[in-house]
Amino acid sequence: MKTTLEIPDALFKQVKARAAIEGVKLKELVTAALSTYLAKPKASAEARPCPFPLVRGKGGPLMKQMNNRTIAAIMEEEDVERYRRSLGR
In Å, what is the CA distance from 32 to each residue of 12, 23, 35, 66? Predict the structure, then answer.
């Protein structure tokens, strides 16, 4: 399918130069670039970074998905540990 695109001159020059360097037609380079872009998974709302500070677990890795259940489990674990220390164990 033929179409007309308006892109900034500087970008067009970069794309045309890259096609020449790689020895491919402009059409092939643009098609490959668009295919690569569309193949990438779309970032969903769930994948966005957490707005509050991340918490390090005992194992070290960052917990990227915080929810009430996870927070409650962490707090319960801390309470049990505090109780054990108060008993001298």
Answer: 15, 14, 5, 38
Tell me which residue of 46, 48, 53 sits closest to 71, measured CA to CA.
Answer: 53
Rounded to the nearest 10 degrees, what angle do helices 26-39 and 9-22 cross at? 100
Pick from 58, 50, 51: which is nearest to 78 by CA? 58
Q: What ranges do the domains of the chain cover?
A: 9-41, 51-86
- Which tens digit of pLDDT belongs to each residue from 17-59? 999 999 999 999 999 999 998 998 776 655 666 666 666 655 5
Q: CA-CA distance, 86 to 89, in Å (whole number)?
A: 8
Asked if 85 and 77 touch (Cβ cutoff 8 Å), the reply is no
pLDDT at position 10, please?
93
pTM of whole model > 0.70? no
User: At 56, phi and psi to the nearest 5?
Assistant: -90, 130
